[in-house]
Amino acid sequence: MRAFSIKRRVSVLTIVIAALIATLATSRVAQSTDLTTPSFLVATRDLQDPLFQHSVILMVPSTEPPLLAGLIINSPAKQRVRDLFPQVRDLKGQEEPIYTGGPVELDEISIIFRSSSAQSSATLVFDDVYVATGRDAIATVLKDPRITDLRVISGKAQWLHDQLYGEVMAGAWYVIPAKADLIFSDPKDLWATLVKGGDLEEARAGTASELNLPYRLLDGTNWQRRISPN
Q: What is the DSSP string of 67-132?
């Protein structure tokens, strides 16, 4: 009878310790990352999909909620901005390449740009970064002298909530806070720089942060990879 009592106490103690470990693990979550806030998806080394390998994606407001949308910002194509408007002269950034923004709706053209003031034809992404879609809207932006940095992009990436959640959980993406300077930096080395930082941060942390995606609240048992840019 005494042996049974001791075993029972050990069993209860084991449960209590397990619960304490789980509580401590949850308390180590520094900050949740929410894709309703400005975010990059950075393809991890484990991502094998040729459409997204080495991609850095800026998440943007979706035009088709509840779908989530993003634009690849580091995949320049051979086509130039001038090729979109062969009859129009004196447009800003005519020699800039058009970027391949993702495999969905390749004929849809968007522009990401920085502006010191709001644009009626554009949607604010964060800070002074805007996105606009459609040739007329893009032509208006390219004529505006207040515009500084820009990226013209064809196509986009798009996910259902659970689809993207599954990809993050499978280790396909790092989710990091977006920075304007990174959006318009040299695309050649952008992925390598960010993924290297992600590998180092993940090795140091040993744990991942809570995953919060729009349109559904997730509890503290859901985890993701997270890094912070330099």
A: SEEEEE-S-EEEEEGGGT-TT--S-TTTTSEEEE--SEEEEEEEEEEE-SS--TTSEEEETTEEEE
Residue 200 CB contacts under 8 Å (≥ 6 apart), including other chains: none
Q: Which two tokens stand for residue 44?
A: 């991890």
Give the CATH number of domain 58-158: 3.40.1740.10
203: left (phi over 0), alpha (psi -120 to 50) or beta: alpha
Q: How many residues appear in the chain?
A: 230
Q: What is the mean pLDDT of each run of 10 residues along the chain (230 residues)?
A: 45 38 28 61 91 95 88 95 82 90 95 88 92 91 86 95 88 89 93 78 49 37 40
The answer for residues whose C-beta is within 8 angstroms of residue 81's C-beta and 6 or more apart is: 91, 93, 94, 95, 96, 97, 98, 142, 152
Across the strands, what pairs with 152?
Answer: 98, 111
| H/E stretch holding 162 | helix 161-169
pTM for this entry = 0.75
Q: Do the Cβ atoms of 228 and 201 come closer than 8 Å?
A: yes
